[in-house]
DNA sequence: ATGGCAAGTGAAACTTGA
């Protein structure tokens, strides 16, 4: 089973590009972030034509997440528990049915910039809530994949120019610490487990020629429960997508689980 | 050293992203 995550930076502005990638890569499951539309405006029919079941947690203008799966999605949850006042659409969870079901969580973790503001506080609070929820899911002792745009650069090796990110919310000690705390619950970073080579970037800014200069960062991650990590067979960063037509600033990352 | 792009909204210029 191949499970993808991709921050598409508006699914409707990029629909042709996104569909072309789905036709070629044909993931079994995909979590999309920053769809930037309400549920009713999500192009569900286009994905259904490609054989996908669709679950959407949308929002007008900002954020928005979706999950697509070739097999039916069960137990769909929209929104991260722990704060009923949180109106951002940043979390979707479902059990992907099949011979060996996998629970998949798609996240769009808050950016948190600029630091020293309520935005950074919101980011850290969101990470705390994710930690609490993940702890509960891990207690189920089942295959679990939490993937998405984490907006965290875990280590200096995950940035081409780490010194340029020192003042950024993505690289603050608190952000990195919260990401480590998540892993310390017993979750495995799929890329680090199977590859771990510095330079596995997943995002390049549109500005300042970041792509041609390879000024990238690794911020899109798959974290796996032990039961999922045992089945991990491959991790693939679809880097070439960044050089294509009308690209998102993030590229798809795909993992493969046995069975 | 600095800034440089893209998308949504809504119809110019602001907000957001990372």
TrEMBL record:
Record bears the keyword Plastid: no
Family under the similarity heading: Belongs to the DNA repair enzymes AP/ExoA family.
Protein name, per record: Exodeoxyribonuclease-3
UniProt-listed SUPFAM superfamilies: DNase I-like
EC number(s) given by UniProt: 3.1.11.2
Keywords for the protein's UniProt record, in alphabetical order: Hydrolase, Magnesium, Metal-binding
InterPro entries, sorted: AP_endonuc_1, AP_endonuclease_F1_CS, Endo/exonu/phosph_ase_sf, Endo/exonuclease/phosphatase, ExoIII-like
GO-annotated molecular function: double-stranded DNA 3'-5' DNA exonuclease activity
Location of the Endonuclease/exonuclease/phosphatase domain: 4-250
PANTHER family the record matches: EXODEOXYRIBONUCLEASE III
Cofactor(s) needed for function: Mg(2+); Mn(2+)
Source species of the chain: Caulobacter ginsengisoli
